[in-house]
Amino acid sequence: MVVAVLHAPSFRQLIRRPVTAGAGPGERAVSPGLIQSPEELTPEWLTRALRFAGATEQARVVSVELDAVGKGKTGSLFRVRPQYRQAESGAPASLIAKFPGQPGAVRDLVARFGLYEREVHFYCSLAVRAGIRSPRAFVAAVDDTGRTLLLLEDIANAAEGDLARGASLRQAGTALEHLAAMHARWWDNHELDTLSWLPARNNPQTKAVIDAVPARAWVDFVKRNSAWLSPSAAELVRRLAGDRSVLERLSRPPLTLVHGDTRINNMMFSGEDGARLEAVVDWQSVMRARPGVDVACLLVNSLTPAERRSAEANLLPMYLRALHGGGVEGYSLEQLWMDYRLEILNELNQVVVWSSLGLGAGGDTTAVTRLFAAVDELELLELLPASDGTGSWRSRFGLGRRRPAFR
Questions:
Q1: Alpha carbons 38 and 271: distance in angstroms, whole number
Q2: Helix (H) or strand (E) segment spanning residue 280
Q3: What does DSSP say about strands 137-142 and 148-153: parallel, antiparallel, or unpaired?
Q4: Residue ranges of the domains in the chain?
Q5: CATH topology for 159-383?
Q6: Rounded to two decimals, what is the model's pTM?
Q7: Which stretches within 163-285 are classed as H helix?
Q8: What is the widest separation between alpha-carbon atoms in the chain?
Q9: pLDDT by residue (tens digit) across 263-305?
């Protein structure tokens, strides 16, 4: 059975209808069905989809123009521009259709983690109440075989952040304020535990992928990259082989809803200074975890090293104030700094794992370069269990000598 999930006309509540259900009153209730490719996105299908979603009542789509957008490896995105026979107020001028990525190793791995289904479930269950703006979903569908489709609002008045150039400190600060609102909304909220599709950071799929990587992969990574890895970074990579402590610590309460991939190119901005956050996109990696997952992913991947250092001193305390302003208690700057650095360790481990699977560094080259700059600076080795096997931590709080002069 395919489940299509669409917004009501007010876009405030979700309507669930199995596509096998009988039609309701009028043509609008006819489910569009789950298509698998842009070639199947016909005027007839789009007419049914928009009526079923409550986005149109009488307008009929007579032609569709499709343009590929983005360069993502994990999904195929198309801008959809419908032409209508009958004008109707509120009929969308453009939409974004998201299909699974092109066949290959990346798509296979994404499917193994269930990321396509996870994003559909996010739009089904959480998007309209997540506490942060995401595109409206006209169609969010998945069937028993894992085939998925998203038909989303096109945030036409905004542009995605520029990862290659790097985010501005203003953009990063705005993003952190919005993330703090979402994190506070779901802080230690046990409803998240009831969502079987929403994994923790240490989910079984992640651990299974890591466990399947031979221990020599970490040593081989150091050998391949010895020309630019500092001695401390090389030792850190070797020590990560077989380590599960980082994932476990990022999965201990307090947990909240995290996006999981908060690089600036997954955010849409507008305004004269380009720093008004209109929406956060690409929810495939949404999960339950400690909030430092989102904070570190944003700052380390999206800022130049010099601006990241400034952000660590200025924006981390600002984020914490926003979190406390949302009602969170008992979470300190020291805990945030610890979680922030633990997530950097986790991202370093991901780079090694993706590389061992023949997937390159698992991300944009610029972002990976920024990650390794942070690895060199933040003395992360002290966060791993002591090398003498006692399991003790080198630092009780993991503050390190590179702890910023927080402001």
A1: 32
A2: strand 276-280
A3: antiparallel
A4: 3-153, 159-383
A5: Aminoglycoside 3'-phosphotransferase; Chain: A, domain 2 (3.90.1200)
A6: 0.89
A7: 169-185, 204-211, 216-224, 231-240, 245-249
A8: 74
A9: 999 999 999 899 999 999 999 999 999 999 999 999 999 999 9
